[in-house]
Specification:
heterodimer; A: mainly alpha; Cytochrome-c3 Hydrogenase, chain B; three-stranded antiparallel sheet; globular; B: alpha/beta; Beta Polymerase, domain 2; five-stranded mixed sheet; two-stranded parallel ribbon; 18% helix; 28% strand
């Protein structure tokens, strides 16, 4: 007896993907309705890592909340730190010294390189190319060594303070950073050589998960994903913050909005970041990294606090309840360009030491909400490629 | 875009019943309006060539239980005009009883998940939303955790979980939470 085609069952099937799957890199759950190999409907479910960061923010003071922002996008914690303190400084109407602004730019750009390296590497691993990940990680380790040199932590940085930085860069930082800048282009070239013209990579990424510019704007996409779709909007050039206007760099725009364009935008963006880093190191001004200590926003040095009564009083003035860092009643929002897109903190103050409400505008959440559109008419195997290209960080997605 | 005074006149003329005021804090203009007309206001801001705010950056809400305010909840919309690089904030005020306002999903699809998040964490309903479900907390969760009258440590979440007793040597561990 032979089996005929009409005997085969062709009904639709519901496939569950995640929340614990090696390719989701976090706790994402996707429920797919599939017709053969083709995906007909996608329903993402999120919230598995919801930890109430925004609720917690209402019970911590401004400098304490910086440590919580580290845990949001843990691939580039520095960008979160600086986005938060920028909003707090806007609320206080505070301008930090030029040197602090330049160091912030430098750290943000190094974080962006580290973030993009990991994103490209992980996406390649998901699709089946392991080498890129290892090559990228070599440079990423060097960047993390540099972060460790600057403030002693690798992952949970908390380098920013409202009104400046935790501390100035050590003298050994500059030569180490210049070494890194010389080494980095080699890694980019290796990644370029391994992937850009790779036949398998092209087949797996070109034409996969396309989003047009109208959809990109309607879904609120920002960052490399929006730029890959041809939306010419980079907050660093359009709404410069933290002295980005002093540096000369190009904004990379794609045209097709598919996974391949997102990869190319990220790859070229790393080169532009390198350009910014070099300019920062060349132009780095001297002077303090914190606002004036008399402004009562920054803690005095430890020696002064232990050594003099004035220093001790100053310390108490800042750390005691109902004193110190108390912004006026009002609200502030500063959009910043994080590696994933527009990251901003919306802070409402009631005049107390703690924010009344602190909201994160999470690029991961908003970029991920366009996932069902990207999955239209795609295959099951493309899920992983598209998910990787979005670089969804669960810590920031669910907060 | 129009300066603050002219903007006040234009918006007041268009929405005489629901317009409240326009405030300016640290160079950020905020239009205050009653919740029921927020969809019309946002449609005007999006389609009127004088404004042309084509991008909805963020939707969030603030619970003004412990602050002086026209109403308890404010749903906050951050709009961006990408061509002229201008931002504006719209605050839609909603009352405490049956907080609800029209969904802006017809204008921007990004409102889908963001309004679900506000619904989940604040309990504000968006009429006309295609799929208003909880997004962050579990589906059977009863509370709205970002409201100010919800305690930081939660309500009953700890006691709802069974305590696992461990055996140490020949004895079962005492349940310390009961003592």
């Amino acid at each position: 007896m032979t089996l005929e085609a009409k005997d085969l069952s062709t009904e639709k099937l519901v496939l569950n993907f995640g929340p614990s799957h090696p390719a989701t890199h976090g706790t994402l759950r996707v429920i797919m309705e599939i017709d053969g190999e083709r995906v007909t409907k996608v329903t993402p479910e999120i919230g598995f890592l919801h930890c109430g960061f925004e609720k917690l923010g209402e019970h911590l003071d401004y400098n304490q909340y910086i440590t919580v922002t580290d845990r949001m996008n843990y691939l580039s914690p520095m960008c979160n730190n600086f986005a938060f303190v920028l909003a707090a400084e806007k609320l206080l109407d505070l301008e930090v010294p030029k040197r602090a602004q330049y160091i912030r730019v430098l750290m943000c750009e190094l974080s962006r390189i580290a973030d993009h390296l990991l994103q490209i590497g992980m996406q390649a691993v998901d699709i089946g190319a392991f080498t890129v990940f290892l090559y990228g990680f070599r440079l990423r380790e060097r960047i993390y060594d540099l972060f460790e040199l600057a403030y002693g932590a690798r992952l949970t940085t908390s380098y920013a303070r409202v009104g400046g930085l935790m501390r100035d860069l050590p003298d050994s930082f500059m030569p180490a950073a210049l070494d890194l800048l010389d080494m980095a282009p080699g890694t980019f070239k290796e990644i370029d050589g391994l992937l850009t013209h790779n036949r398998i990579w092209l087949d797996r990424t070109r034409g996969i998960g396309p989003v047009g510019p109208e959809d990109a704007i309607s879904y609120g996409l920002t960052g490399p994903i929006a730029r890959a779709s041809g939306v010419d909007y980079d907050l660093r050039t359009k709404e410069p913050y933290s002295s980005y206007e002093d540096f000369d760099f190009d904004v990379i725009i794609g045209s097709n909005g598919d996974v391949y364009d997102r990869y190319l935008v990220r790859l070229y963006e790393m080169r532009e970041s390198l350009k910014i880093c070099r300019q920062v190191l060349e132009k780095m001004p001297g002077g303090p990294v914190n606002v004036d200590a008399d402004s009562k926003y920054i803690l005095p040095p430890r020696e002064e606090m232990f050594g003099s009564i004035e220093g001790l009083i100053h310390h108490f003035m800042i750390t005691m309840e109902n004193q110190g860092l108390t912004p006026p009643v009002g609200e502030a929002y500063v959009p910043t360009e994080s590696p994933n897109g527009e990251l901003g903190f919306f802070i409402v103050s009631d005049g107390g030491r703690e924010p009344y409400r602190v909201r994160t505008r999470p690029p991961s959440l908003i970029n991920y909400s366009a996932f069902p559109v990207m999955m239209e008419n795609m295959m099951v195997s493309d899920t992983v490629a598209i998910l990787g290209s979005l670089n969804v960080i669960a810590g920031e997605l669910d907060r | 875009m129009l300066p603050k005074d002219q903007l006040t006149v234009v918006i007041k003329e268009k929405f005489p019943d629901s317009f409240l005021e326009i405030t300016d804090f640290r160079d950020m203009l905020t239009i205050h309006i009653r919740g029921e007309q927020v969809l019309d206001l946002l449609r005007t801001l999006k389609t009127d060539p004088r404004f042309a705010f084509n991008f909805l950056a963020d939707i969030t809400a603030v619970d003004h239980l412990e602050m002086d305010a026209p109403a308890r909840f404010a749903v906050v919309y951050h709009l961006l005009n990408q061509h002229e690089v201008r931002r504006i904030v719209v605050r839609a005020w909603v009352d405490e009883e049956h907080p609800s306002l029209p969904s802006v999903y017809p204008l921007w699809k990004t409102a889908d998940w963001q309004e679900r998040e506000v619904y989940d964490l604040f309990g504000i309903e968006f009429t006309g939303h295609p799929d208003l479900r909880r997004i962050m907390t579990p589906d059977d969760f009863q509370h709205h955790p970002l409201r100010k009258d919800y305690p930081l440590q939660g309500r009953g979440e700890r006691s709802n979980f069974p305590v696992v007793k461990r055996r140490i040597g020949s004895k079962w561990q005492e349940d310390k939470s009961v003592q």
